[in-house]
Amino acid sequence: MSAASPEPAASCVGTRPTEDRPAALLDIRELTVEFRQGRRTPPLRAVDGVSLSVAPGETLGLVGESGSGKSTIGRAVLGLTPVRSGTIRFEDADITRATAKVRRELSARLQVVFQDPYSSLNPARTIGSTLAEPLLVQGRLTGRQSADRVAEMLGRVGLPPDTADRYPAQFSGGQRQRIAIARALMPGPRLVICDEPVSALDLSVQAQVMNLLAELQEALQLSYLFVAHDLPVVRHLSHRILVLYRGQVMETGPAEALYARPVHPYTRMLIAAVPEPDPGTQRSRRAARRGGPLSAGPLSAGPPSAGTAAVTDRGCAFAARCVHALDICRHDRPLLLPVGAPDRSGPVTRSAACHRASELLAQP
Ligand SMILES: Nc1ncnc2c1ncn2[C@@H]1O[C@H](COP(=O)(O)OP(=O)(O)OP(=O)(O)O)[C@@H](O)[C@H]1O
C-alpha cells in the first residue's frame, strides 16, 4: 500500500450532507503545513496530509504528544500559519488563504481560546473593556449594548457582573480562563478552537472549565475543535477524537469507542500512559503497551527501538516505537482506512492508519 494522496476515510470527513450526516462546519482536506529550518535542512513537515471535519454542535478532540502538529492545525484554521497544500473550508467557503479582510469578518463566527489566558489578556485594561473592544471596533454594537453583552457573557461563564470593572491580575487561573472563554463568545461564534484551554489549570479547576464548555456548547450550539495532550481530558467533551503522531492521523473515531477499544498502537500507548487507579486495569494496560499477544507472534518485530526516527514518506511514522511493527510497517506507509464492522448506529465510523488494524481490533 502506498500513502499517495489517499482519499480521506469517510469516517473522519463526513462532509457530504446526507440524511444522517449534516454538512460540516469545518472541513479540512489533505492539509500539509511545513516550516523552514534553514537553507540546507529540509523543511519540517508539522502537518502531513490531515483530513478532518467538525459538524455543527460537534466537538472533535485532537490529541497527540507534544510536537504532533495539533496546535499547527488550529493555527492554520485561524490563518496564523501558512498552508503548504490542502484546503480548509469553513461554512462551505474556502478559507485556506483568506485575506485579512475576510479573516476579520470570519472572527465573528470563528474564535479561539488559548492555553494561557493571562498572556492574552491586557493587564492594563478592565475585563469589560477587553471583552467589549472587538464588537465596538467593528461598530456592531453601541456602548450600552456592548455593556449588556459583556454582563450576559460573564453570567454565562459563571462570573459576577462586577468582573467587568476589574483587572486580569485580580483573578485566579480558572477565572481568567472563564474570562477568555467569555471573550471568545462575545461575537457569537459557531466554531471555537480550544487550544489546550485547561492544561495549565489544577485538576479540579480543569473539570469545572470542561463542564462549563460542555454547558455552553449545549446552550449556544457551539462546535469545538479541541486540542489536548491527554486523551482523558478530551474524552468526555468530544464526540469524536482524532489521534495525531508527527503530523499524521493515526486513528479517528467516536470518543467512547476509541477510548474503550483503541486500535492503533500509538493510541494504546497514549491511553496506557495515563495513570489508572485500579491496579488490575493498569497491569493489563502495561501488558498491552509491551505488546500483548500480537507482538509474540511469528510475524512480529523485535522490541521497539527507543527514541525517534526521521519522518519519511516511507513506512509508518510510528514504526520505530511500535511494539507490533513488521517489516512492511517500516517500508510502506499505511493508509487511514475504516476498521470494524458497521453497527446498529450506522456505517463504519472508525479508521486507523495501521497495517495490523484488523488484527489489533480483534485482539481481546
Ligand atoms: N512557527 C514555527 N516554526 C518552526 N517550527 C514550528 C513552528 N510551529 C510549530 N513548529 C514545529 O512543528 C511541530 C508541530 O508543532 P505543534 O505546536 O503544532 O505541535 P503540538 O502537537 O501542538 O505540540 P504542543 O502540544 O507541544 O504544542 C513541532 O515540531 C514544532 O516544533
Automatic annotation (TrEMBL):
Nucleotide-binding among keywords: yes
Keywords: ATP-binding, Nucleotide-binding, Transport
Pfam families in the cross-refs: ABC_tran (PF00005), oligo_HPY (PF08352)
Domain ABC transporter: start-end pairs: 28-271
Region named Disordered: 274-306
Entry's Gene Ontology BP terms: peptide transport; transmembrane transport
InterPro entries cross-referenced by the UniProt entry: AAA+_ATPase, ABC_transp_ATP-bind, ABC_transporter-like_ATP-bd, ABC_transporter-like_CS, Oligopep_ABC_C, P-loop_NTPase
Keyword Transport: yes
Domain of life per record: Bacteria
Family that this chain belongs to: Belongs to the ABC transporter superfamily.
Protein name: Oligopeptide/dipeptide ABC transporter, ATP-binding protein, C-terminal domain-containing protein
Organism from which the protein derives: Streptacidiphilus jiangxiensis
Lineage, broadest ranks: Bacteria, Bacillati, Actinomycetota, Actinomycetes, Kitasatosporales
